[in-house]
Specification:
heterodimer, A: 80 residues, alpha+beta, three-stranded antiparallel beta sheet, two-stranded antiparallel sheet, 1 helix, elongated, B: 150 residues, 26% strand
Chain lengths: 80, 150
């Protein structure tokens, strides 16, 4: 089982380790949150108690750029 | 049958739980359009023996028309296994798909909205159907991009 080490002040994922948040202790001054199966969490993600894991600004910008590029490619092909 | 995987049953439960999936069913067959990227859907069609031939061709053409005029679809894709040659005939000759890829085990077909309007429908008919279905923005887009006055 994987768990993310979270900086509670920023919500940033600072590490992903093999651990069980229900059993293992979090490193000092950090939170330990289980990573759902299938979610490719890394340091570019953030976590909060309302939304759970979500992409951080850098990753979100990258995802937005990919989506925009895909949209442009599809529209170009579709209307050609 | 056209599908994205061959030789094994496909579990469509996740796709049918997705509100963006479009499942069209008639007397002798069904067409399931699974979203795959921006305004793009992958078609899987299943026909009973009674639906093969002219009925299936009509059903597929009507399903494609439905997607282009009553949903946000801009591109449709389908995969026909080479082990089922009738899939080639259905996709290409009956439904006017164009060959997008050719692998050792399957053909990939595509339909784009512009190609469909030019080859199968018309700007006027497509716009009328879109407006009747409430796809107003899409109808306006067709006029903007494909009107003869451009």
């Amino acid at each position: 089982m994987r768990a993310a080490v979270i900086d509670p002040a920023s919500g940033n994922v600072v590490n992903v380790i093999v651990a069980d948040a229900a059993i293992d202790a979090a490193p000092a001054d950090h939170l330990l949150i289980d990573v759902p199966d299938g979610l490719a969490i890394d340091h570019r993600w953030q976590w909060n108690s309302v939304d759970g894991f979500k992409p951080g600004p850098e990753l979100q910008a990258e995802l937005d750029a990919e989506a925009a590029a895909e949209q442009a490619a599809v529209e170009q092909e579709a209307w050609a | 049958m056209m599908s994205a995987a061959f030789g094994a049953p496909q579990d469509f439960t996740p796709a049918l739980n997705n509100v963006a999936t479009v499942a069209l069913i008639d007397d002798y067959g069904c067409a399931i359009f699974t979203p795959k990227g921006f305004k793009t859907y992958v078609l899987t069609i299943g026909l009973l023996p009674e639906g093969r031939g002219a009925w299936g061709a009509d059903f597929l053409r009507a399903s494609i028309a439905f997607m282009f005029t009553q949903t946000d679809a801009l591109v449709l894709k389908a995969y026909t296994p080479k082990s089922i040659p009738s899939g080639f005939a259905l996709a290409r000759h009956a439904a006017g798909g164009y060959l997008a890829d050719n692998t050792p085990d399957h053909w990939e077909w595509k339909w784009t909205i512009a190609h469909w309007i030019r080859e199968v429908s018309s700007v006027g008919d497509a716009v009328a159907l879109m407006r009747a279905a409430g796809e107003i923005e899409k109808a306006d887009e067709v006029i903007k991009r494909m009107s003869p006055a451009r």
